[in-house]
Amino acid sequence: MADTVRMGVVGAGSISVRGILPHLSQADLVGRVALAAVCDPVPGRAEAAAAKFGVGRAFTEYEELLARGDVDAVTIASPIGLHYEQGKLALQAGKHVHFNKTMTLTVAEATELIELAADNDLRIVASPGEMLRPHHVRTRELIAEGAIGTLSWVSCGAAFGTYHENESVRGGNDVLTNIDPSWYFRKPGGGPVYDMTVYALHTVTGILGPARRVTAMSGVRVPVRTSGGADVRTDADDNTVILIDFGDNLYCVATGTAAGGMRGGFSGTYYGTAGTIDGLLLNGEPFDFPDRNPEELSPRGPGNQALLPHVTGVHREIEEQHVYEDVMQLVDWVREGKPSIVTAEHARHVIDIIESAYRAATTGQTQDLTTTF
Question: Which residues belong to any copy of the Gfo/Idh/MocA-like oxidoreductase N-terminal domain (predicted)?
Fold first, then answer.
């Protein structure tokens, strides 16, 4: 139990500058969260972020943050390929951890971190907490109630497009606005599945439960991208289609593609014998759920982030509200002993789907999943 959770921010890249640091520096969090430290390997970036957002200490080396940053917990906002090693070091140093998606690249890595946290009585919250959204809970209830008859199949997914190249933190003249997006297109940890489809996989498994097996096709469709006037070679798969078996002949098609998002997006579209749930719509009409405010919500827009429990007041005006929510899930767990539903076990199951999908694409063989949550 702690009065104020001293938070270290690992990485001062896009997600931190646009979301984590602006949220955690707000006055309404005084007494609950203190921005104790930030680190980033780019010279001057951590110092600039600390100055802008009132962070206590700035470091270039992550190990220095753990040793001298005076933190109780860290939020890991570095490239995905670094998450496992950085999470392991944090847990070994006695720190609670929030992982921005995706927690690790493999099931074995996730299991090691889960066991390490348990052995040291530490907490892990692993984004994205899609089932914190009340409309997803209501979707699960509607399906169980038979509102769309017998569920037949689900579509979901995401596409890179040029989203990362065009973010507001690219192409500027200082260390907080000229952040290089190249890692999104490179191994390990790059590609739209780890970065974007992971949201849809958390949602669909949260609504339908654990999956049984997967198969997939995957590869690189756009071999060279341009960012900041320089060519970036793509070596992480950017065009992936996954077929997921939930048992009893219930299937989901999930995509992580170079362009052209699948119907359903992050929330999924659920096709039944008596109707369809598509985002916030049941058979084309908005369905009701707790705290729904039609003035704030568009049928398929991001306005539903305003329904997340900690996203109130000024936090509704800052980007990446869902990331802030997940960080606060960890804060509440540490301060109040209140467990979060945004668990490492759920994240591990999604990692199992992703890892198995890539293996299926390589081998041409359907893969049985080995995890649950």
Answer: 5-124
